[in-house]
Automatic annotation (TrEMBL), chain A:
GO terms for cellular component: mitochondrial membrane. The keyword Transmembrane helix applies. It catalyses: heme b + (2E,6E)-farnesyl diphosphate + H2O = Fe(II)-heme o + diphosphate. It is found in: Mitochondrion membrane. It is a multi-pass membrane protein. GO terms for biological process: cytochrome complex assembly; heme A biosynthetic process. Keywords: Heme biosynthesis, Membrane, Mitochondrion, Transferase, Transit peptide, Transmembrane, Transmembrane helix. GO terms for molecular function: protoheme IX farnesyltransferase activity. Its EC number is 2.5.1.141. This is Protoheme IX farnesyltransferase, mitochondrial.
From TrEMBL, chain B:
It comes from Buceros rhinoceros silvestris. It is found in: Mitochondrion inner membrane. GO terms for cellular component: mitochondrial inner membrane. It is a peripheral membrane protein. Signal peptide: none annotated. This is Apoptogenic protein 1, mitochondrial. Its main location: mitochondrion. Pfam families: COA8.
Amino acid sequence: GLFVWHLKNTGVRQLPCCLARLCRGANDRLITFQYFSFLKRMYVTQYHNDLSQRAKPKSEAVVSPFRELQQLEQEKKVIHKISPISPVQQPLSETSSRKELREKTLTAESEELVTSVRAGSKDDRQWKEMKLRLDDLPGILARLSKIKLTALVVSTASAGFAMAPVPFDLTCFLLASLGTGLASCAANSINQFFEVPFDSNMNRTKNRPLVRGQISPLLAVCFAASCGVPGIALLTLGVNPLTGALGAFNIFLYTCCYTPMKRMSIANTWVGAVVGAIPPVMGWTAATGSLDAGALLLGGILYSWQFPHFNALSWGLREDYSRGGYCMMSVTHPELCRRVALRHCLALIGLSTAAPVLDITTWTFPVVSLPINLYISYLGFRFYRDADRSSSRKLFFCSLWHLPMLLLVMFTCKKSFLEKEDKGDLLSEGPGRAMEIRLP
Amino acid sequence: PPAHSRNDWIGPPDKHSNLRPVIFYVPPEESPLERRLREARQEAHACDQRFWARHNRAFSQEKEEFIYSRLKAKGLEMRDGTGQKATLNAEEMADFYKDFLSRNFRKHMQYNRDWYKRNFTITFLMGQVALVRALRWLRWKKKNV
């Protein structure tokens, strides 16, 4: 458990690097580590961006470029703060040459962020031709499909797959991840297609491709169809029909239930939490082919996590939601908002305790995860009591590292699907089987 | 936008509605279908512009009134000693946000319905136009081969 505490102390968002564990060989480690560092980097900048934009009042065009540059300075500082921490990661998986590569990509990304935001603010004052440029297309489609969110969804699905008590099947894993990713791209594109005038009016979302006219609605729908149909087909035919059905249902839930409901009733938050809970269930069913208690537990953990995460985030966006006509608990029922967040933080403790009861993890899991669950519950309680910006931000940032940490700990405490006596035989059988991680 | 351009042009966000205006290119050989599409888009933009400009103006106005009345109740002025505009903190504003949202709920419901209808119609028309253009191009290709 030493390295787990090490990671926790860095305070950096970590992803379930269960992928790194399962893949043998240096090449696999390089791929997963790059994936992991990319996600970590963009996660910090994305959320920092979000919150900085929130702090900005509705300002005139003159002021905003300066504000944005100021935010960039902050973001750059954050990015550079991460790189000194990288030595901690050395024991995990990298050699010094890869570290250099990572730092190069880090600075390249921060440059890109600077130029893209600068370009964004310049664009705002110019007339642009509505012509689709092919070299812009990948970037536009990435933003249309909310590629970062999709990556997170895929990683929760991978966590579900990894926790399933079956031998690890690489092809199945890749197909399930790809299918889930495509389904998520489709759902996100349709969501943006439905929300153009509302997105234009909110600070957080006003730079989306459809809002800026960089792509036509027709193309957005075609893109969504061309991601969704192959994605679901891949899941149904390449993995199993249950996973495909769950994927299709999730797309439907997100686009046809959650998106319109956002403007009709506060119940949308609960629907959204279900949407977030389904990917790990899909990962599990992809591995096992059936919906067992373990899948539901994992889904339950993600479901409960959504509430502190989203309620804390929405606390600072109340003005935009009110003006935009979004029915969110933070605006209409603020007390309920905070109570629900706290309730679900506590539920996480309960769910973590249920995991060994259902034979998914050993009893080490509730013990090791208790500190982080208590911490997020404590922040949830502070949010409930204080109801101010700083407590909501603390809770939100905590939720960002809490989930990956929890999933990581869960994976390390995963119960081997073999009997304890057969562990010796397993070791002699070679690669291609799930390995139980032994903590020092 | 330059006169020789054959594309639509999209501009910076409007000050009141936050929506981007579009100048449509009218090709000389525009078919009735294409004209229907263009007019639908123009009408949609005009509707959206009207709605959001009015809505946002109402929001800032009511917000000002709310702040004024609250400050008055607290016995403060709009501008404090240093000439800075006095504001209420987020918790005090929360009452206003809740109230504004509930007051405008029906207006939003109506707008949502209209927006979804318009969005689907326009996208469907775009699909039809694209299909017609593609068929026309294929026919032209076949003729020239």
